[in-house]
Amino acid sequence: MNENEVRSSKRAYLAGPYALWIAVFTILPLIVILKYALTGADGHFTLDNMTAIFSPIHVKAMWFSLKIAVGCTVFCILLSYPMVLAMKHLGLGRKSFSLFVIILPMWMNFILRILAWQMILSNNGILNLFLTKLGFEPVQIANTSAAIMIGVVYDYLPYMILPVYTAIMEINEDLIEAAKDLGAGSFTVFRKVIFPLSVPGLLSGTVMVFVPSMTSFVISDILGGGKLQLIGNVIEQEFTTGNNWNMGSGLSVALMVFVLISMAFTVKNEDQGRESVIW
Amino acid sequence: MKRLKDILSGIYIGFIALILYAPILVLIVLSFNDSRSRVTWGGFTLNWYVTLFSNKQILEALVTTVILALASSAVAVLVGVPGALGIHAMSKKKYKAFMTLTNIPMLNADIVTGIALMLWLVHFIPLGFGSVLLAHITFNIPYVILSVMPRIQQMNVSVYEATRDLGAGPVYSFFKVLLPEIMPGIISGFFMAFTMSMDDFVITYFTKGAGVNTLSTLIYGQIRKGIKPEMYALSTLIFIFVSLILTAFNVFSEKRKAKTLKEYENY
Lengths: 279, 267
Description:
By secondary structure, chain A is mainly alpha-helical. Chain A has 13 helices and no strands. The two termini of chain A are 38 Å apart. In chain B, 80% of the residues lie in helices and 0% in strands. Chains A and B meet through helix 1, helix 2, helix 4, helix 5 and helix 6 of A and helix 1, helix 3, helix 4, helix 5 and helix 6 of B.
């Protein structure tokens, strides 16, 4: 072992405090929630809290959450690509100003922004005011799943735009030029060069949009009028109004397993790309 | 053809910007609305900006939110930066294991992270500012590590080794060589952690207990009774304040980029 190797193995000890932090505040809490999930109110071992996820009312909430999450992810992807390509086309790409425009809205509290959407979308709200002024029929989307969908897409869109943006801006311009010189049209360039090279960004974005949109409860609370329940709402109520911590923990663990399974595939693919292109 | 593409690109960017900023515009307008109701316009007023400064509840929540964000991001940097340096020096297998553990709070749903922390923390401390702070540090550290790690990987380790071989102590080399190299990663990590802490609702909601409120939890509590108009005024002020800071920061970094480019060309 030479001197530099000794130094490097000593350097690993710098991670000591962080290792301790992970043990105490990441791993132990997960063990505790698992313990709650596997015990009943009487303190005995049971699988009832976990299998409760398969009861009809919970299956319904899970299914609805899944639909919202998949829809939200798809809409975010469909909205992000034209956005990034338009920014690139107008040469706004390398300027940090364009990123700034996308990040800035996050500095207004998200609950207030969702409440503003409630005002925009309500039956006699701002959107319908405009529609009737322009001579269109008013739309009735307040308290529907469409309103929730608009809310989640709005809230998580920046988390898709940013990684896709980072990935696309890093593409070597020569590759695109070469494809064009060889006779590829814009669409072929996108399909054969830009899109494949943007996949790591797309996957990071998907992870960052899918999980939160599936598990949020505030957006569905406000825009769904309290009638449409995501799995997040069900779990939250077990802890607040229901006061059944074991059941809430059981559903949380079941949700976590579901999320991990659906993410395992994505992250596995991501590993083959680059480390992380989140921002 | 190119002109048409320019116009379409402009229109599309405008459309997305409209979606992103429409609710913000609504909130700013409400902060000047001379009516306690959200649906009627009662004329222009600056009143809420005045009464804001005598609203103890909102000011307390603001102070709590800012202190929480500053303290949690600072501790996240103090634990996360040495953490990243240490993980980087590990064998490939350990490196992978640590990075997977780092990703847990990022991949896990906030609601699960919040509940798990609450169930664990409640065993040894009363829920309050302390438990929220511990929770925020926990979800902030990964942001610091993930933004510092690429910097460490890009860094030329030989420079550090060379200073050490030439007799510089580890502390001296750290401050003179390592730290300046990874500083941009630390700054962006701190900034991201700060933003995430300011904007968090779910994890704070589950770990806070009674008595403590951040702006997010205070707003959530007001939804049923109606949001206090002072809250719109405060949000508008925060929004303008942050826009100014970020603009200044942007102008500054663009200028510096231009300057370093010029110096480079002079060689």
